[in-house]
Design brief:
Length: 477
């Protein structure tokens, strides 16, 4: 029995070392390329176009500066909050995401020269009777977390007697107003103007206020060479007219509502490649994670039935900890928390696999213990009375019966792992859910895109459920 546990432990460590080693080599090979975090759901500053390429004012400025100054950039679609945390933990080198320069942020970040000046506006439904801040008394207002618009709204909420509700995505904030749950939302002027030009069913009712300036940011005291190159490149873009062309490209009359087919099937056809790519990443992440989670679960599940009190205590503790932690907290702790302490980067894919391995592996360990415990104790006693050692009795008598009980649970855990991959969009893994967010940021068709994604998940999970029932019937014979 000890040999089995030792073998599985070694296999698990070697596997993780290989995955981490490959990712480390990839990072080392890209030492000349700066990792830049962005929101990618904040048009016209950052979003993905119909070819699923990252574009927008921020992206074009960053790429233009990189070309001018002779370095490369790898754009990471982490989302605003995750990008901020990733810069602080030095997972990435900088962030360009419509980030307003404030005194509070200057305490933790070094900012470039400002590259855009903006102001906050309020938007309401097209047929709303609210014409200004005075009409918000006793009402609910939607804001997006981490934005200057949110800060402004909260600063005047008491004065005008309204309450705020916070969303992580712009599309969810807009839809909260369109659906009538909130009476208004606050947003940066160019972002709201672009959304309305591309078909958003809202109208702006206030003049820009609470103006701020956007800047490129790095962790305080780090990447000063990059910051200097950004400032030099920005000055060159302004001098040669490229900066003005970038703004006109996204804020001029060219940014009119697209005439593309916006029906369900039209959107599906337009975005099928991106959705299939996201599905492929989801399935890959699921298979790798469930592989390591199974090994992890077998190790700690078997430890939980050993005659050693220490082994059982370790098993119980590990299961208790990793089943008790919310998956999103575990993912952020591994991806941003650990690097903050160690100074070592953890690639998003590796962090995602480790997160799912620990969480799903803890549940696997629990039903491994339960499966073995469900075997009649007389089976072990009979095997021992025949002269078999504990290890041989477990391996040849108890485990074969326990595995028959466990197999359906293994397949169900595979289904659960597939669904849990969606949470990893929080650390920027471009799986199916994150792909959906990026598509919605471009076309603002939240209901239809989420319906497609729900349908894809439903089809895959239905197939896995059929497989589970088939295996269960076969095992019952």
């Amino acid at each position: 029995m000890k040999r089995i546990v030792l073998f599985l432990s070694s296999f698990l460590l070697v596997g993780l070392f290989m995955v981490g080693g490959q990712s480390t080599k990839q990072v080392q090979a890209a030492t000349q390329t700066y990792q830049i975090g962005t929101d990618v759901t904040y048009p016209p500053f950052e979003f993905a176009n119909e070819q699923n390429q990252y574009v927008g004012i921020d992206i074009d400025i960053m790429k233009g500066i990189a070309k001018s100054e002779g370095f490369k950039v790898d754009i990471k679609p982490l989302g605003f909050n995750a990008s901020v945390q990733a810069v602080q933990s030095q997972q990435i080198d900088g962030i360009i995401a419509g980030m307003t320069i404030t005194d509070e942020r200057k305490a933790k970040f070094d900012f470039s020269d400002p590259y855009y000046k903006t102001g906050v506006v309020m938007a309401v439904q097209k047929d709303s009777k609210v014409t200004g801040l005075a009409g918000l008394k006793g009402k609910r207002v939607a804001v997006k977390t981490g934005t200057s618009a949110s800060d402004y709204a909260n600063s005047v909420a008491k004065k005008y007697g309204f309450t705020t509700v916070t969303f992580d995505e712009s599309d969810n904030m807009y839809n909260d107003v369109i659906n009538g749950n909130s009476v208004a939302c606050f947003e940066d002027q160019p972002v709201m103007q672009y959304g309305i030009k591309t078909g958003l069913a809202l109208k702006i009712v206030t003049k820009p206020t609470g103006g701020g300036e956007y800047g490129f940011a790095v962790k305080k005291g780090t990447n000063q060479a990059l910051l200097k190159q950004f400032n030099q490149g920005l000055a060159k873009l302004k001098a040669n007219g490229q900066y003005a062309k970038i703004q006109a490209k996204y804020l001029g009359t060219v940014a009119n509502k697209t005439k593309a087919d916006r029906s369900f099937f039209g959107l599906m056809n337009e975005n099928k490649d991106a959705l299939l790519s996201g599905l492929g990443q989801t399935l890959l992440l699921t298979v790798i994670s469930i592989f390591f989670a199974t090994i992890f679960g077998l190790i700690f599940g078997l430890m939980g039935v050993l005659p050693s009190r220490l082994a059982r205590g370790v098993s119980t503790t590990v299961i208790y900890i990793f089943r008790g932690l919310p998956l999103i907290v575990l993912a952020l702790f591994i991806y941003t928390g650990i690097p903050s302490l160690t100074g070592q980067k953890i690639p998003a894919m590796v962090a995602g696999v480790i997160t799912l391995m620990l969480n799903e592996g803890a549940y696997t360990a629990a039903f491994v213990k339960g499966g073995i415990g469900a075997v009649n104790s007389g089976q072990m006693e009979a095997a021992r009375s025949l002269g078999l050692s504990y290890g041989k009795a477990m391996r040849r008598v108890v485990l074969p019966q326990g595995i028959r009980i466990m197999v359906p649970s293994f397949i169900n855990q595979f289904i659960i792992t597939l669904k849990d991959t969606s949470i990893l969009s929080i650390i920027g893994i471009l799986e199916l859910t994150q792909t959906g967010k990026i598509i919605i940021a471009r076309n603002l068709e939240g209901f239809k895109i989420w319906a497609m994604i729900a349908l894809i998940y439903l089809v895959v999970i239905t197939l896995l459920t059929w497989l589970s029932k088939f295996v269960e019937r076969r095992m019952a014979k």
